Amino acid sequence: MTATTGKGPAGDPDDGTAAARAAAAATGTGTGTGTGTANAPDGRSPTAGRTPDGRTADGRSPSGPSAAGPSAAGRTPSGRSAAGRRRLIAAAFLLPALVLLGALVVQPIGYSLYRSLFDRSGDVFVGAGNYREILSDPTIRTALRNTALWVVLAPTVATALGLVFAVLTERVRWGTAFKLLVFMPMAISMLAAGIIFRLVYDHDPHRGVANAVWVGVHDTFAESSAFPKARPGRDSPLDPADGGAFVTRAPVRAGVPVLLPLVGVAPEALPAGTRTAAAAPAEPGKVTGTVWQDFTRGGGGRPNAVDPTERGFSGMRVEAVRGGRVVASTTARADGTFALPAAADGALLRLPGSNFREAYAGVEWLGPVLVTPAVIGAYVWMWAGFAMVLIGAGLAAVPRELLEAARVDGAGEWQVFRRITVPLLAPVLAVVLVTLVINVMKIFDLVFVIAPGAVQDDANVLALQLYRTSFGTDADQGLGSAIAVLLLVLVVPVMLLNIRRLRKEGSR
Fold first, then answer.
1. Quick one: pLDDT band at residue 170, thresholds 50, 70, 90?
2. Which of 27, 75, 302, 416, CA to CA, is 20 to 30 A from 40?
3. Angle CA(194)–CA(195)–CA(197) in degrees, nearest 5?
4. CB of 254 within 8 A of CB of 342?
5. What is the pLDDT of residue 75?
6. Is 190 exposed, middle or buried (0-12, 13-18, 19+ CB in 10 A)?
7. Are residues 2 and 46 in contact, defined by beta-carbon separation less than 8 angstroms?
8. 330: Cα within 13 Å, side-chain hemisphere
9. Of 422, 397, 439, which Cα lies nearest the Cα of 186?
10. Rounded mean pLDDT, 409-422
11. Cα separation of 497 and 332, whole Å?
């Protein structure tokens, strides 16, 4: 082979050089002086007979792979088949997930929408009748109101507690142990947590922890009565009065002992330090008497008389009343005896109702008023640890130099927290808040387990109402499907907001 030269086969040298360059550009050699262009098989140069613009002598454009360039060579049948194989492999991997998605998500949603347009039997088309019933049924309206309360309170409180825990645990040496304790409820199922809090909220202070603490605090400042069941016995000189009090039938006289017998208090329930009852001696110028438990265990006692085995009512308050006004008062001793000054002469003796006030039993946590906040408290106990862990991970990524710079500039800890830490954690807080909002909109098991049957209508939420309507004793799957569609419609905007936020973060 002979490499081409800078001259054409004939004519002016400049014309030959231009033709050689045009041929080199057409064949991809870059210049007319390179060595990569070979002569044709007939011995002629490939540039022979071409015009300076690369056309042949008869004016036609060159054809073939060399004219199409490297891009045309890349689109070979083998390349197209490889791309097709890759698409088939990707489709094969996606197919099981798509089948499951269609079978477990798309088909149930479509069927629920279809079923919500029919009546209880599924045979009669009612259109939007089930949706109108949702708005008119008071039980479902209560479920909607409680669901709104859940959406507002539960995620906000859980996120706020998680933020506080995450910030505070960074400042203590045992922060890891504290995080473990707070996060541990996440390992408990909703059913188990519901059973735990059903016991915690028990109304009996001897069983329910919440009321045991509440009653203990209450009794520290307002001690309850030791004689809540006491009452006058048969042929007693006492009559009932207003406010749960008992009053003597006749006025009392100084120097004449008074007997005030009562029954109805178990011996083991008497106050500590109570002794055997004694008959009060007569004292000149004073009204004396005895107030005691007029009951002899095993029988044999005398009514309205102090027997040797009967116990006094230690601490019982006794008042002398004249004209509706208390003129004297005292408290019974350990043996039940008492003494009033001469001012009590001619007055009626009254045992005020405070002596017989029922013991404080605490708060009815699972009553109609507090049942929803009580169940929300159980939810927060479970999910505050989840919020704390996510927020703690975001807090670890906050640049420490920003916090230190703010402190150097004179900012207090509250200002650093409010103006720097919280704004920097805003994306993480949004993730936690949106996740919890979606979670509480489908809350079911905690409400079902904790709320007693008598107050489940008061604690009702949409997911629980969906279950009760669709599978309860008076099942109506048409109305239940409408509730399911309503629940989906309420969840979708929150999910779209979350997707939009994720896309915005991914585009940064």
1. confident
2. 75
3. 65
4. yes
5. 56
6. middle
7. no
8. 20
9. 439
10. 89
11. 71
Structure tokens at 445: 């098991």
pLDDT, one tens digit per residue, over 228-266 is 888 898 888 999 998 889 999 999 999 999 999 999 888
> Over pLDDT 70: what percentage of the chain?
84
Task: Give the integer Cα–Cα distance in Å for 220 and 208.
Answer: 18
Tell me the DSSP string of 100-152. HHIIIIIHHHHHHHHHTTB-TTSSSB-TTHHHHHHHH-HHHHHHHHHHHHHHH
Residues 6+ apart with CB under 8 A from 486: 131, 134, 462
Residue with tokens 């109101």, as numbered in its chain = 145
Cα 278 to Cα 341: distance, rounded to the nearest angstrom: 20
Residue with tokens 């009760």: 468
Which stretches does DSSP call E strand in 274-390?
287-293, 317-322, 325-331, 337-340, 348-351
Say whether 443 sits in a helix, a strand or coil. coil
* Other residues' Cβ atoms within 10 Å of the Cβ of residue 86: 10
* Contact of 315 with 354, CB cutoff 8 Å: no
Query: Is-contact 211 365, C-beta < 8 A?
Result: yes
pLDDT at 508: 67
Cβ count within 10 A of residue 151: 18
Containing H/E element for 66?
helix 65-68
Q: Pairing state of beta strands 258-262 and 287-293?
A: parallel
pLDDT at residue 33 is higher than 50: no
pLDDT tens column, 80-107: 788 888 889 998 999 999 999 999 989 9
CB atoms within 10 A of CB 507: 6
**Residue 34 vs residue 190, higher pLDDT:** 190
The answer to whether 179 and 389 are in contact (CB under 8 A) is: yes
* CA-based nearest residue to 297, from 257, 268, 337, 318: 268
- Whole-number mean pLDDT of the chain? 83
pLDDT of residue 64: 46
Q: Tell me, what amino acid is at 428? A: V
In this prediction, residues 195-209 reach a mean pLDDT of 92
Tell me the residue length of the chain.
508
What's the confidence (pLDDT) of residue 267? 78
Name residue, tokens 């490889």: 82
Per-residue confidence band for 125, with pLDDT thresholds at 50, 70 and 90: very high
For 486, other C-beta atoms within 10 Å of its C-beta total 19
CA atoms within 13 A on the CB side of 32: 20
Q: For Cα atoms 322, 326, 328, give the angle at the middle one, nearest 5 degrees.
A: 100
Contacts 24+ apart (CB under 8 A), 280-285: 280/337, 280/338, 280/339, 281/257, 282/255, 282/256, 282/257, 283/255, 283/339, 284/254, 284/255, 285/254, 285/255, 285/341, 285/342
Average pLDDT over residues 114-123: 90
Structure tokens belonging to residue 389: 């862990």
